[in-house]
């Protein structure tokens, strides 16, 4: 499964980069395949391990912010691995045709 999620601290002002970095650090230390862009971090793995990473990323932000917003989108497709790469490669292949 692939989960794309965004963790946003609320009540800490406009500059939230250091709080978001705490969440991304959790993802990177998890060892699971992941990608971070300007809006979301995507992480790939089995249900329990991915949800554990999301929970710990939220907790890392929650430890420093009075309120946390979580946006999550999941692609649950049993038997598929390396979806983070293969899904993008498929789109690129169609674009170059």
From TrEMBL:
* Positions of transmembrane segments: none
SUPFAM superfamilies (UniProt xref):
MTH1187/YkoF-like (SSF89957)
- What highest taxon heads this organism's lineage? Bacteria
Q: Please provide an example of a Pfam family that matches this protein in its UniProt record.
A: Thiamine_BP
InterPro entries found in the cross-reference section: MTH1187/YkoF-like, Thiamine_BP, UPF0045_domain
Limits of the Thiamine-binding protein domain: 3-92
Family the UniProt entry places it in: Belongs to the UPF0045 family.
Report the protein name in the record.
Answer: UPF0045 protein
Q: Which organism is it from?
A: Streptomyces chryseus
Organism lineage reads as:
Bacteria, Bacillati, Actinomycetota, Actinomycetes, Kitasatosporales
């Amino acid at each position: 499964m692939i989960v794309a999620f965004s963790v946003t601290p609320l009540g800490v002002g406009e500059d939230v980069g250091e709080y978001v970095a705490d969440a991304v650090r959790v993802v990177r230390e998890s060892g699971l395949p992941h990608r971070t862009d300007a809006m979301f971090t995507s992480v790939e793995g089995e249900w329990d391990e991915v949800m554990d990473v999301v929970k710990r990323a939220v907790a890392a932000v929650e430890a420093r912010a009075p309120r946390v917003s979580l946006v999550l989108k999941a692609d649950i497709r049993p038997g598929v691995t390396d979806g983070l790469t293969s899904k993008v490669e498929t789109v690129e292949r169609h674009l170059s045709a």
